[in-house]
Design a protein that fits this description.
The complex is a heterodimer of chains A (409) and B (230).
Chain A lengths: L1 H14 L3 H38 L5 E4 L17 H10 L5 E12 L4 E9 L1 H6 L7 E4 L9 E5 H7 L6 E7 L5 E12 L4 H6 E5 H8 L7 E4 L8 H10 L5 E4 H4 L1 H39 L1 H9 L4 H33 L4 E2 L4 H6 L5 E2 L5 H27 L3 H5 L3
Parallel strand pairs in A: 3-8, 5-7
Antiparallel strand pairs in A: 1-9, 1-10, 2-3, 2-6, 2-9, 4-7, 5-8, 6-7, 11-12
Chain B lengths: L1 E14 L2 E14 L3 E5 L6 H8 L7 E6 L2 E2 L5 H11 E4 L11 H12 L3 H14 L15 H14 L4 E5 L7 H18 L2 E5 L3 H6 L2 E6 L2 E7 L4
Parallel strand pairs in B: 3-8, 3-9, 6-7, 7-8
Antiparallel strand pairs in B: 1-2, 1-4, 4-5, 9-10
The chains are: A alpha+beta (409), B alpha/beta (230).
Chain lengths: 409, 230
């Protein structure tokens, strides 16, 4: 214990022996740690928002649909079980956050324009519970129930159609007999989404209204189920699979939207690569600092060895000094990163590049999101690799022959 | 009883194209409580012999025995343990650890030995008082004169009561007054504590205090004078 105390004391005092060099190195480690955590938080925030947006754009965390629905999302591939039976099965399994939808391609026509959209017949209350797009109505009113005869469209679509709340539009699709099914609707509300592309793509109406329009009874196209965390879907997937009878397919969002699923894995890989790259840049400075520190203290090290200090204690001294340097740098870097994230918690406006960002599904406001796993990863990488980087100079110091070290000029 | 026994020590250094014999078949035995001066011109082999006795240097051949233990075949760790417990060192310069205060420098060896803090504190205060540095324990080496620094080094070398103190040119960087005081201190410690001193020097004033004067030339012992005998 005494030997450890003297090692710690020497390491601490030697650290501050050359204030300027130590402060420069501490600044480098702090900025490095800040960059690791803060930049990861920015990218994590952007990707998480993309993932959430993607999931809000209807797949849910887990989705049930006809086995052929993904290849041909048409009226012909409705689910094999009625909505009522599906709902009863899910509720019996304790799954409450789900929404059964009719989802068909349609043409929407205003007085002036026509466009292709995805028409969704939804239960407004259930959609709101799973926070899907279309829930954020900013003008007019939201849909009230499954029998609502109005339609909600995105603000952007309304602009394109040159229509507005209160005006009539016509929705036209295909029924199961391949006949045209159409109906006039009044636009009762406009919704906003994070991405303009989503505002253009979807039109929402009451589920029963659409079922009647298409003549499909109580059948639906898909059931979106939402759990607590989109990253952990396996337990939910298993429960849904257990509760659903028949031939319908149950898939997690990562398979429904492979781009998003891959994005999540790529993000985790990116964090590791980013952290390691920054560390390597830092490690040059760290090793250089320690090598210089050892080089300047050769005679002292020789003296300590001559006085009976064991080589392992010299090794420990350099490693502890490196640990102090890394630990202080990390504390400052972590605090700076937390501070930056708090200051920018209202979001960073990147609307100047919004169009480009939207191309790959990102919103125009970036919210940094600090995840504990990223913070732990950054700190562990710096400490562990820093320890490994300090081994070489420390080992060198402990290998000196006392008599050669003392007489070193 | 022998404090140190060296048998047929040989050590050759390579300098450029030349082999220099630093120790050339040296035999010497030093009894406990002795006060020995090794005297030689520069390059005569006295520092090499001192380093060999302290287990700091690796020899080409020969045997070194300290306090009854053969040390020339010990491992680095064993040698460190021996130096820690049995031998006190005073070097010519760069004797102290600059980031520690005088008191901490004195306590350094005891702390590595594992002596409890209270005991270290009492011993270091007492020894600093004994070497005339009472009240200066909190100063760092940079705040002390060369003489004061050497006194701290002496205090550190003897505070844990080693059986043997090895000093290499301890007065080389000191003025005559400070040198005199330091040698008187060595002599007093030798008398009062019975510590064996082996001092490499070519300072005549130091030699004057020696009980035994060993002269070396070109790595060999050329004269060995026991003043008590004469």
């Amino acid at each position: 214990m005494n030997a450890l105390k003297i090692i710690v004391k020497l390491a601490w005092r030697n650290l501050w022996r050359n204030h300027r060099r130590t402060i420069v190195m501490l600044s480098a480690i702090s900025i490095g740690a800040w960059a690791m955590i803060f930049m990861t938080s920015l990218v994590r925030g952007m990707v998480n928002e993309m993932l959430r947006d993607g999931i809000r754009a209807l797949p849910g965390h887990v989705q049930v649909h006809h086995p052929d629905y993904r290849d041909d999302p048409s009226i012909e591939n409705l689910m094999n079980t009625t909505r009522e039976e599906l709902a009863a099965s899910l509720l019996a399994a304790g799954i409450e956050r789900f929404s059964a939808r009719v989802r068909v391609p349609a043409v929407i026509s205003s007085e002036r324009e026509s466009r292709g959209v995805i028409l969704l017949g939804v239960d407004p209350k259930r959609e709101a519970a799973i926070a899907a797009i279309g829930s954020r109505v900013t003008e007019g009113r939201p849909l009230t129930d499954v029998g609502d005869g109005g339609v909600i469209i995105g603000r952007r679509l309304a602009e394109k159609l040159e229509t507005e709340v209160g005006k009539r539009i016509v929705l036209m699709s295909q029924d199961p007999d391949n006949e045209i099914a159409d109906r006039g609707f009044r636009v009762v509300g406009l919704y906003e989404a994070n991405l303009e592309i989503q505002e253009e793509a979807f039109a929402f109406a009451g589920r029963m209204t659409i079922q009647q329009m298409l003549g499909i009874g109580d059948f639906v196209s898909e059931v979106a189920v939402v759990g607590d965390d989109y990253r952990v879907v396996d337990p939910l997937l298993a429960s849904v699979r257990l509760s659903i009878d028949g031939d319908d397919e149950v898939l997690p969002w990562t398979e429904l939207d492979e781009y998003l699923g891959t994005m999540m894995m790529v993000m985790d890989g990116f964090v590791i690569i980013w952290v390691v790259i920054i560390f390597f840049a830092l490690s040059f400075g760290l090793v250089n600092t320690l090598v210089m520190a050892v080089f300047e203290r050769v005679r002292e090290i020789g003296l300590m060895l001559a006085l009976g200090m064991r080589p392992s204690s010299i090794l420990g001294q350099i490693i502890v000094e490196s640990f102090f340097l890394l630990a202080i740098g990390l504390v400052v870097g972590n605090l700076l990163a937390c501070l930056s994230i708090i200051v920018l918690s209202e979001g960073i406006d990147i609307s100047i590049v919004a169009e480009g960002m939207e191309m790959f599904g990102s919103a125009s406001v970036l919210y940094p999101e600090m995840e504990m796993q990223d913070v732990i990863l950054a700190n562990v990488v710096v400490l562990v690799l820093g320890f490994l980087a300090s081994l070489s100079p420390a080992w060198r110091a402990s290998r000196y022959e006392p008599v050669e070290a003392i007489t070193k000029v | 009883m022998s404090a140190v026994r060296c048998i047929d020590l040989c050590k050759t250094y390579r300098q450029g194209d030349q082999d220099i014999k630093a120790l050339d078949h040296v035999d010497i035995e030093i009894v406990e409580g002795d006060f020995v001066c090794l005297s030689a011109p520069s390059g005569g082999g006295k520092t090499t012999l001192l380093n060999a006795i302290g287990g700091l240097d690796i020899l080409d051949s020969g045997e070194v025995w300290v306090a009854g233990q053969r040390i020339d075949c010990m491992s680095k760790g064993e040698l460190a343990g021996l130096r820690l417990k049995q031998i006190g060192f005073v070097f010519q310069a760069y004797n102290l650890i600059p980031v520690l205060t005088a008191r901490e420098n004195v306590e350094f060896v005891m702390q590595v030995q594992g002596v409890p803090a209270d005991e270290r504190g009492c011993k270091s205060e007492a020894i600093l008082e004994e070497v005339g540095l009472g009240g200066l324990g909190d100063r760092r080496p940079a705040e002390m004169s060369g003489g004061q620094q050497q006194r701290v080094a002496v205090a550190r070398a003897i505070v844990s009561r080693p059986t043997l103190v090895l000093a290499d040119e301890p007065t080389a960087n000191l003025d005559s007054k400070t040198s005199g005081e330091l040698i008187e201190l060595f002599a007093e410690l030798n008398e009062t504590h019975g510590t064996t001193f082996v001092i490499a020097t070519h300072d005549q004033r130091v030699m004057a205090y020696a009980k035994r004067l060993v002269k070396m030339l070109d790595g060999r012992i050329v004269d060995d004078i026991d003043k008590r005998a004469g």
